[in-house]
Amino acid sequence: MGRGWDVEAVRRAILGALGLAACGPSEVTSPGEQATESTGDETVTSGGDATSSDTVTAGTASASTSSSSTGDDPGRDGAWACGDPIPPEFTGPPCEDPVAPVQSDGTPTGFETCGDGRVHRVEARECVVSPTATDACRNDADCGEGQLCYCDGDDSRCVDAHCSTDADCGGLPCMRGEDPRVCTGPGEVYDYFACVTPHDTCDPQVYGTCNLDLCDVCAWTPEDCAWACRPLDATSCITCGRPYLVDGTARVADAVRRGDWVGPIASAHDRLDAEDDARVASHWLRAALAEHASIAAFARYTLDLLAIGAPAALVADAGAAMADEIEHARACFAIAARHGAPAHGPGPLPSDGALGDRTALRILDDVVREGCIGETLAALEAAAALRDATDPAVRTALARIASDELRHAELAWRHLRWALGEADDRGRASIEALVTAAIADAIAQTEFTSATDDPAVPSHGVLGTEARAHVHRTGLAAVIGPCTTTLFAACGSPHAVAS
User: Fold this and answer.
1) Which of 118, 284, 357, 436 has the fewest CB atoms inside 10 Å of its own CB, making it the most exposed?
2) Looking at the domain assignment, is residue 407 inside a domain?
3) Nearest CA to 184 among 239, 255, 236?
4) Residue 237 pLDDT more than 70?
5) Are residues 125 and 223 both part of a single domain?
6) Which of 238-252, 269-283, 468-482 shows the lowest per-residue confidence on average (mean pLDDT)?
7) H or E element at residue 464
8) What is the pLDDT of residue 205?
9) 496 pLDDT exceeds 60?
10) What b/e sequence results for 329-347 when a residue is b if at least 16 CB atoms lie within 10 Å of its CB, and e otherwise?
11) DSSP-assigned letter for residue 112
């Protein structure tokens, strides 16, 4: 598979951690002393620390758990703060050539579309909806707190809103934002409304205001109280750590200005032009947010393990993995900050609904998707990025991430083995169907994300989209599929799982 990574080594490491000769709950042990598996020039250690020319061990600077910061939170220039009255001298962007859409009966929707495509809400109006449209809202009262009814005929829907009309914004536009959520499926968009403010650095409805090549989108958050270019959902552009899935959608925090999540980091190894520097900063900021979300995934997983009476070895390793993800996040935030990321820390991570309906099968579905698939691919992707990276700090971070993510993937596979050992024939059939569906979804997502090829900066660990898709396709076909088939055969499943 090319110099620097070897899917066969990863496959052997996972099968070795499973101990397939003795399938069942009584045989679950900590992998602790797994043998080192070579991935080419670099060594990714299963169940231990990564070793390479940039050795990473607990206690080194990059693995330190002590608080570190690049300095005080820089804050914002200017005296205006979120919640203050808008200064009279700030008028906001003009709405030229406005059009007021009307409904089927000729009444206004209450929304106005500017000539450049921006949409804002002038006033709240009753939406005209046919009697058969049972899922459509008709007015704001039909929606929950912090929402408004977006009039669109029978497709009228409740959307999140930090303002109801322009009047809530001191006469400035109560503007619509669109946030693509690639992981919820191709073409789906999350709509919401928020005020234009003096601290805005982008326009949510003007194409090109943010660099889409870097997977940035103009978005608003209550923490910053401003529209700014922010990374898309991390899993749409990068795989790092264990995704934090809630109802099938990956959750990540927004990036905010803070310094307490930035780990110690050396100065840049080489100088990049402005475009590549921005691309590297955006890449590692997305990686940091993904790693930060992995902390929550492992925190929930630890509770899940206790709730289903899992073996002590699984619980212990889940707790250790959470500490690993903290250090991964700090290292990634540090690299992003070094390359000029405007925000280099996580804001609040939305976790509503994350603990609801946690049946054993639902827990296992998350384990398969987040761990057996997500972290196996994350380990392979980090090893692939390490192959061509030349920046010492990046190599150190990738070496540790590749090693740790492989160990985390092994933990998920061991959980799957334990669940199979506990199940009867009917239960194993349900588990097999669950795993088959998860693999099929992963294949479909890989095909969707490989449609374009974003530029790479290999010296700083940034793979292009097609390179990432190749890693994922290969990992699914050569590691996840065969490991699944072998595991089910060893645990008495009557059928093989397709790769």
Assistant:
1) 357
2) yes
3) 236
4) no
5) yes
6) 238-252
7) none
8) 62
9) no
10) bbbbbbbbbbbebbbbbbb
11) E
Asked if 350 and 404 sit in the same domain, the reply is yes
pLDDT tops 80 at residue 431: yes
Residue with tokens 């994922």: 472
Residue with tokens 């929550």: 296
Based on the fold, state whether residues 368 and 316 are members of the same structural domain.
yes
384: pLDDT strictly greater than 80: yes
Range list of β-strands (E), 181-279: 189-195, 216-221, 226-231, 245-246, 249-250, 255-256
pLDDT at residue number 466: 82
Per-residue pLDDT at 259:
84
Q: How far is CA 339 from the centre of its chain?
A: 21
Question: Is residue 347 in a domain?
Answer: yes
C-alpha distances in angstroms, 33 versus 48, 49, 81, 206, 364? 7, 11, 54, 55, 26
**Inter-axis angle of helices 7-18 and 481-490, nearest 10:** 20
Q: How far is CA 167 from CA 88, 120, 321, in A?
A: 14, 11, 48
> CA 331 to CA 284: how far, in whole Å?
9
Any idea what DSSP says for residue 342? Answer: S
Looking at residue 80, its pLDDT comes to: 63
Which residues are registered as beta bridge partners of 38? Answer: 43
* Cα–Cα dist 222/135, whole Å: 28
Q: Which domain holds residue 290?
A: 7-72+240-490
- Tens of pLDDT along 52-94? 333 322 222 222 323 333 333 333 344 566 667 777 777 777 8
Q: Is residue 77 part of a domain?
A: no
Question: Of 164, 199, 231, which residue is a domain's last?
Answer: 231
Strand segments, DSSP code E, in 312-442 are 345-346
Domain count, the chain: 2
Q: How far apart are CA 225 and CA 198, in angstroms?
A: 10
What are the C-alpha distances in Å from 224 to residues 41, 80, 83, 327, 351?
44, 12, 11, 25, 19
Residue showing tokens 């761990």: 371
Q: Is the separation of the CB atoms in 136 and 157 below 8 Å?
A: yes
Q: Residue 249: which CATH number?
A: 1.10.620
The token duo for 302 is: 């630890």
d(CA 491, CA 24): 8
In this structure, the answer to whether residues 439 and 313 fall within a common structural domain is: yes
Which range is least confidently modeled, 90-94, 173-177, 307-311, 347-351?
90-94
DSSP-based three-state secondary structure for 390: coil
96 found inside a domain: no
Nearest to 209 by CA among 187, 229, 232, 190: 229
- Measured distance CA(234)–CA(255) in Å, rounded: 11
Q: Which residues pair with 102 in a beta bridge?
A: 108
Residue with tokens 């003096």: 198
**pLDDT for position 182:** 32
pLDDT tens by residue, 17-52 = 887 533 333 333 333 333 333 333 344 444 433 333
